[in-house]
Write a structure and sequence with these properties.
Layout lengths: L4 E2 L7 H15 L13 E5 L1 E5 L4 E12 L2 E12 L5 E7 L6 E5 L8 E5 L1 E5 L4 E12 L2 E11 L4 E5 L6 E3 L10
Antiparallel strand pairs: 1-2, 2-4, 3-4, 4-5, 5-6, 5-7, 6-9, 7-8, 8-10, 9-10, 10-11, 11-12, 11-13
Length: 181
């Protein structure tokens, strides 16, 4: 049985609360999620957590689990980097040799969940950029995109991909036909 450390934000000093709250907020704010997810409680579990107020870095190691509303992340390791005002600059999630990092969320009430898998998931909020690196795959319903690297601009809704060893694979299934009644 693993010993998990759950950080209770209520009992920590104010500056540390800000740093932790920011770290929790990072995954829900990737702009894929439903807007109401940001108002839900966030839960972050890891076997070890290191938060450094001076360097504005967070390191989460061992069976990292993040849940907030319909937004979820599973990774072997995650890191965060903030500026001196605790604004998130970068967040990264790492898989391991047995399991890829996995992020999933509900993008709209009437759409299936969006799942993203990769050896590494990088998020850069100031650039509105999400980068999936290594065995990258995005699934929503029956549609999928697979490549060595997938970049998504969350502001422009623009996707680019590259694949060093093979071609990018896109699978799009036709939508349901509606009767004109």
């Amino acid at each position: 049985m693993c010993n998990y450390y759950i950080i209770r934000v209520l009992y920590l000093p104010r500056n540390l609360k800000l740093l932790i709250s920011l770290s929790l907020y990072l995954w829900a704010s990737i702009s894929f999620a439903l807007p109401e997810d940001k108002a839900k409680k966030a839960y972050l579990l890891a076997q070890s957590v290191e938060l450094n107020q001076q360097t504005h870095q967070g390191i989460y190691i061992g069976e990292v689990t993040f849940d907030q509303g319909t937004t979820h992340l599973r990774a072997d390791k995650a890191t965060t980097l903030s500026d001196p005002k605790n604004k998130l600059l970068e967040a990264r999630a790492y898989g391991n040799t047995k399991k890829l990092a996995h992020y999933w969320t509900k993008t709209a009430p009437n759409k299936p969940e969006l799942h993203a898998f990769a050896e590494q998931i990088h998020y850069y909020p100031p650039k509105h950029l999400v980068v999936l690196i290594g065995q990258a795959r995005v699934l929503q319903g029956e549609d999928s995109l697979s490549a060595d690297k997938i970049c998504f601009d969350t502001l422009k809704k623009h996707v680019t991909s590259s694949n060093k060893q093979s071609k990018t694979i896109i699978i799009i299934h036709p939508g349901k036909k509606h009767d004109a009644t």
